Every structure is written in structure tokens, then in C-alpha cells.
Amino acid sequence: MRLPSALTLVMPDATNSVHSELVRGVESAARERELAVMLASSERINEGREWLRRIVREGRTDGVIFQPPPDLGSAAVRSVTELPAPVVVINWDEESAERTIVFDDAAGAEAAVRHLAERGHRDVGFAGATPGHAPGARRLQGFETALGDLGLARRPAWITHEGLTSEDGRSAARQLLRAPRLPTAVVVANINAALGFLAEMHANDVEVPAQLSIIAFHDVWLADATWPPLTTVRMPFHEMGVAAVDMLFADGSPAGYHIKVKRPRPIIVSRQSVKVLPCHP
């Protein structure tokens, strides 16, 4: 029996700084198994999956780690899992594949809200993903759970569903600026959206954090290069990459095997974009 020699990591954008730790985790685990790693864009899945079947059929890859693009439906994700090679689906819907690894996104959002509440914020908004984006839905769920647990009001005018790109962040900021008043803090569900959100607030003379505090999902080097530097929720991308390779080539993994990467749990990286407010009784 031929030993595996290569795996393919299919992800929305390999150049996105958010994914750099995931790639490092996959490469680290693959190196220990003496495997080559090929990178491919999951955007090509929208164009058809024959190219992926071909490289499996030709023996150029022995397994696929697949992060679907946000606009890919569950049926298309399931079709990828039917390749004649092991497939692990990462950071998506737990029900969409037999082998799935997802972040504890809800815990990350809860940690963000608690971080703000501990610093005196009771009026908290959320700039989220578009409807149907599974990780974004989990982050929104965690946000709303934390509001309820802490006795904070959920105000629809402070919750947006514009998306996760920088331009989406700008759009979310413009939507919040149309509300009767701003919250004192906003959780942004992605660092790329947070960069656009911050830029739009600057463009509209909203002082961060004096008038509005911001905390964003994912800790990348750009978070420390903005003004003010952004407080973030660091998610365990490296651990997810290692776990995906281990699951891909684990012998006898049962059908329906699901794992949530919870250790280490999401970590708050505190920077200057969150203001400490006076405590009120």
C-alpha cells in the first residue's frame, strides 16, 4: 500500500493574513508526516469541482482540507466530501460533512462582550457576516447569549449583517451611523471588516475609542498597525491546522466525527481600541 505523500489545502484566500496561522499549522503537521502541501483557492469550487477530482484521480493528492467560501451552499460542500480521498471540512457547518472541525466562535463572541462589559460598556453593537455564513452565525449567537447573560439590551439598530471584507466593514459603519445614537462599543466579526469599520469611523470624525470602542475577531499583525491598535479575539488557527491534518490521516475515524477546537480557547488581545468607562450603579 502506497503511503500518502501530499495533501491539498483548499481555502477562500491563501493570501489573507487571517489564514496565515492555519497554513502554518497544516504545514507543521504535514512536515512531521513528510507530506507536501498544495494550496488552492476554494473560489474555484464555485466554477466546478472536476479539477479537484482530477488531481485526486491522478494521485497528485492523498487528502483534502477544505474551507468553503462563504457563499457556497451545503449541497456543494457535501459534494466535495464525496471525493475518492479523505476530506476534512474546516470552520464551516458541523452538519455538512462527516469529518468537520469548527472553531468555538460563540465562545469567542461571548469573551468579546464580557471584555467590554468588564470595562463598563452596556451599549454594545455587532458588525457581523452576511446571513447564511455559518461561522458568522455562531459569532452572532455567542454575542446574543452574552448580552442575555449579562443583562444587556439587544438593539436591532446596532446589529448589522453586511459581511466580512473591508468594504463590508465600511458599510456596517455607515449603517450604525444612521442609528438614533451610537453604542459605546462594537464587536466586529472579522479583522478585515474591522479595518474598514475603523476607517469609516475616522472618515466621519468619530473618535475611537473616545466615542466608540472596537473589538474584532482574529489577531493579525495589521491589528497592531492601525490607530488606535485594535483589541482582538485570537482564535486558534494553528491548532485547527494541526488537528485537520491529524484527522485527515487518522486510521478508522468514525463517520460523523466532529471536533471543536476549544483548547486553547479564544484569547482576548487587549490594545488601545477599547476605552474603560466609569462604572455606574
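(ticket continues) Second input and output from the same batch:
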Amino acid sequence: MIYECYKYNFKPSIQLESAQWDFILSMVNEGFGIAVMPYSVSSLLNFEKITTIPIENDEMTMDINFVVKSHKPLSTPLKAFIEYTKEHIQTMKFSNT
């Protein structure tokens, strides 16, 4: 994301980074800056003072991870789902519509 900003001669002033989406959106809702995040996350949370502006850029990517309990063996169906997803993720196109 930072590279994309620099590519268009924009230098963001990053004051805070967090993995807590609800906290980030609460800060934006109170007028403390802007946030860049997946539409799927922002659409789940309801804030009165926030609007989303889609970013359309085929060159940008997002890391997707599976989150599973540690120290617990993966079931055969879950392993199959993970493998299927890894094989097909490149062909998927996510949309905010």
C-alpha cells in the first residue's frame, strides 16, 4: 500500500497501525484520520460518520491467511478446503458489490 502511495507522489503520515479493525474504525469515526482496509471488514461494522470509497487497482494485492487453533490437528475436510483455496485463490476476484 505504501508503494502505491509513493507511486502517485503521496507520502502518507502514518501515526498509528493496529490489527484491531473495530479500534481503527472507531478512530476514523471520531475524526482521527482515515483507514485503508478490506471492504469486507468495513462493511461488517456500523458507524454513523464513516463512508467507504472503493480503491480499484488490479496491481494491489492482499495477504490472505487461514487462522486455526494451534496444537490441534487439522481435519481431513479442512485440509482439503485449504488446499483447494490455495490452488484457486489466484482466480478469485473479490468485489464490494
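Agent notes: The CA atoms of residues 26 and 47 lie 8 Å apart. The two ends are 22 Å apart (CA to CA). Closing as not reproducible unless the customer responds.
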